[in-house]
Specification:
Radius of gyration: 21 Å
CATH architecture of the largest domain: 3-Layer(aba) Sandwich
Largest sheet: 10 strands, mixed
Mean pLDDT: 89
Oligomer: single chain
Helix content: 25-40%
Strand order of the largest sheet: 1-10-4-3-2-5-9-6-7-8
CATH class of the largest domain: Alpha Beta
CATH superfamily of the largest domain: HUPs
Distance between the termini: 39 Å
Order of helices and strands: EEHEHEHEHEEEEEEHEHEHEHEH
Amino acid sequence: MTVTTAHKGTAPVEPLQVSRLAVVIVRHGVLPVGAAEAVAEAGNRVLLLGSGTEEAAGELGAARTWHAETVDAAPAGLAAALAPLVQDVRMLVLPASPDGRDFAPRLAATLDRPLLAWANQATVDDEGVSATLSRLDGRLDVDVRCDQPCVVTLVPGVRSPLPPTNGEVFEVVLDVPHGVDAERLSVLEPNPETMDLAEASRVVGGGAGLVHGDEDEQRTFALLRAVAARLGATTGATRVVTDAGWMHHDRQIGTTGVTIAPDLYIAFGVAGASQHTGGLGNPKHVVSVNTDPSCPMTAMADLGLVTDARALLEELADRLGVTG
C-alpha cells in the first residue's frame, strides 16, 4: 500500500529528539520481515536506511519517517555515520531480520550501549528500558530491565503492526566514512528449504492429518518439502509432527515453537489447535486443506479446501512435476 505523505522535507543531520525509534534496513524498496512490527514497537517512528527508502516509507505509512539512501554502505561506516543522529534516542528497535541482526550489534558497539537481542516486547520510560527476551528457541521468556539507553532486536510476528497513516517523511543525508570495514562480496537469496521459519514469506505446514496409518511418514513429509520448495516456500509443522520425529523441532510453528508472519500459509492436515494458531502471527493469506470443514484452521482460513490433505498434496506434486 502506498500512502501519500502529508509533509516531506530534508532534515539536518542533528540528534533526533525522540525516546524510541525503529531502524530498518531496506533493500531495493523491499521491507524486511518484521519491519512494520518494529515500527509499531517504536511508537510509529522509523529511520529507513539502504536503497529505495522513499518507496518503502510510502508503504510503511508511519507517523514520522526519516530515510537515507545508503546504497552499498559498509556496516561499520554506516553505524559511525548514524551515531550522531540517534545518540539521544533511548531505545532503538531493529527487526530481527538478517540485516537487523547483523547491524544491531555494530550499532550498539558504536554507541557503547547494551544490546537486548531477540525481544518479544520492549518499552522505554524515564528510568530505562524493560524487555522480554526469547531464549531456548522460544521455550523461555526472560524479563530484563536496563537503566541506560539500549539497542533492541524484535522477534518477527510477536505483535500487530499499526495501520498506515498520512505521516511526515524527511530525507536525511548521511556522510558515511570510509576505512577498515567488512567487505560485502555478494548477497545470496536464502534457500527456502533451510531458511528460518520466522523470516519466510511463504510457509507450507504439515499436521497429523497429512499422515494415514499405513503410510511412510518420512516419505510424506519429504514430499511436503519438495512441493514447498517448488512453490518458493519453506516448511513448518505442528507439535504433534515434530514430537513424532517426522520433522525437526526447528520447523515447529506455535507458542512453544516459532512465531511466523508470512504472506502465505498453506496448512495441510492441520486442525488448528490453539498452541499452533498462537504462533501464526499475522499471515496475509491462509489456505487450509482438511477433511473437517469446522476445524479452527479452516474457520480462520481465507480459502478452505475440504478434502484429504495427503491426496491433494500428491495431486499438487504431480501437477508441479515433483517426486518425493
